[in-house]
Amino acid sequence: TLVPLPPAPEGPLQRPSALASFEDVGALEEAEAMRRDFVANVSHELRTPLTALMGFIETLRSSARDDPAARDRFLSIMEREAARMNRLVGDLLSLSRVESEERVRPTTQVDLSLVLRSVVQNLGQVAEDSGVALIREGEEGALTVRGDPDQLTQVFSNLVENAVKYGGQGGEVRIRIGAIAHEPVLRGAAYKIDVIDKGEGIDPQHLPRLTERFYRVDTHRSREKGGTGLGLAIVKHIVARHRGRFRIQSEQGKGSCFSVILPAG
Ligand code: ADP
């Protein structure tokens, strides 16, 4: 692509700025391509349940009209598809909100212990229904970070839900919290929260891409389990907003560990 450049710089001192504007256009093009991909993905993800809904409406109008059993079955499927669209729209809104706020660091004092306790409580039933024990371990007492309590709750809900959904075969999910006196990258005290499952693990080739929007190891399985493909993208952005770190480790056949490190304070 030919990119119009500003008038030729005079003198060596101005050269770097002309160069920078050229690079910026490259970045803009890349951002534009990503946006197009994203819109295409969203449209596809919305169209799938919509097509199903429209098909069932048609069937209800015609053949199933006088068959109460079939009607009930179709209505249940329609309900499930509508719920899927609702989750997708909810996740899209969360993602766009976090992205727009990413430069604004949240300042509320949040007690991580309380956040984790409420996540375990909220997901207790879901885990139990899947035959998974949720185990909280590690530091007790107040563990304070600066953050957005709702967003932090969402981070750990997404991770624990995934661990139950995809790693539940191991029968247990551990939520471990530890204090780090000096975290080298964050250059200060921090808390590390690990969400550990003993499921089948993830092939290493997928690890670097898991936080991309709509990236799934197995699309069919994710859809079947009600996933939107946005959970880990949301986690990544929220952790970034909190100036924290996010790391995924996994060993096939043994399980996975999703770690969030947040600056203490
Ligand atoms: P989804 O809505 O599909 O769950 P996520 O962004 O939350 O989307 O996760 C992306 C993909 O990462 C999932 O589809 C799944 O393949 C994989 N994944 C996430 N957590 C785990 C886990 N604990 N064990 C195995 N695979 C996982």
Automatic annotation (TrEMBL):
<keyword id="KW-0418">Kinase</keyword>
<keyword id="KW-1003">Cell membrane</keyword>
<keyword id="KW-0067">ATP-binding</keyword>
<keyword id="KW-0547">Nucleotide-binding</keyword>
<keyword id="KW-0808">Transferase</keyword>
<feature type="domain" description="Histidine kinase">
    <location>
        <begin position="41"/>
        <end position="265"/>
    </location>
</feature>
<keyword id="KW-0472">Membrane</keyword>
<keyword id="KW-0902">Two-component regulatory system</keyword>
<dbReference type="GO" id="GO:0004721">
    <property type="term" value="F:phosphoprotein phosphatase activity"/>
</dbReference>
<protein>
    <recommendedName>
        <fullName>histidine kinase</fullName>
        <ecNumber>2.7.13.3</ecNumber>
    </recommendedName>
</protein>
<dbReference type="GO" id="GO:0016036">
    <property type="term" value="P:cellular response to phosphate starvation"/>
</dbReference>
<keyword id="KW-0597">Phosphoprotein</keyword>
<dbReference type="GO" id="GO:0005524">
    <property type="term" value="F:ATP binding"/>
</dbReference>
<dbReference type="GO" id="GO:0005886">
    <property type="term" value="C:plasma membrane"/>
</dbReference>
<dbReference type="GO" id="GO:0000155">
    <property type="term" value="F:phosphorelay sensor kinase activity"/>
</dbReference>
